[in-house]
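Researcher: Next entry: M23 family metallopeptidase (Streptosporangium oxazolinicum).
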Amino acid sequence: MRLTGVLTTGFALLLALAGGAVAASPAGAAPAGPAHTGGAVAPAQATPARAATASMAPAFQLPFPCGQAWAGNSSASSAHRSWEIDFNRGDSADADLGDTVVAAAAGTVGISAHQGSVNRFGNLVRIDHEGGWSTYYAHLNSRSVSVGAQVAKGQQIGTVGKTSAPGNNISAHLHYEVRLGSGYPGNIQKAVFDGVTFGYPAQTLTACGGGSANPYTPQEICGSGYDVVDSAALGTAATVYLLYNTANGNNCVTTVKRTSLGTATATTAYLEVQGKTRITDTGNFAYYAGPVRAAAPGTCVKWGGKAGNATYDSPFEHCG
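Model: Predicted structure:
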């Protein structure tokens, strides 16, 4: 790896004493939407530690935009205690400085702070996922989410950097960890991306399996409690979905791309509750437009979207 400085064992000791985490800090920029500028999924709540079972883990993706290839290494730093991974791409030191880092799975931001003087993580984002799982993204150049923000899988949370403790000089890379429960370092788990365990100690991977399929589902985009009630194909370019949450009476619309994945192209999703102003999300998006949500219990809705040259506009329907 391209580390120009070696993290000391004191780093590991500090982490062990701290239980691998520090109290959440609100430091950082205001929450940002996913890379496509839509909203985020419902929050995931952390639960007590439990046995690490692969079937319980979220469906993690590589923490970079789909289609990008990154080299991971778990043995190039003396600070590594278990299954942590340092990621780089490019042929020179700092070639990836400022590159986008995304959430490996949906969840809630538990830490967004500069922790260089505490554990040498520098700018750190921790995302808490369902089932007691957490992911750590360290040494970031910038953070684009704040504590308490709900993030979607694939949403930008920061950029690759080389922040650490004062005087600890390293080259740009992303330090990535997956943890389950507490008890550092025993709570660090092997990383799994797109259902496949990382090939320790080193492997080069392409995010989202090469970008051949959209990594987002309508349910992930709209959030917990939403189920698909209708859909319409927009040619081969995308599919627009209408979802409903029976718990709160909210509708949600998202247009999920099927082609030109990872490339920003014109995409639209809209939702109109009868008697109210239409809500629209439109722009050049890499993976999907939306989510567009509105409460409509017992009220008809009109919904639709656009991608490429195809458009769908429903009548007022789904009036339950």
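Model: Note for the record: The mean pLDDT is 81.
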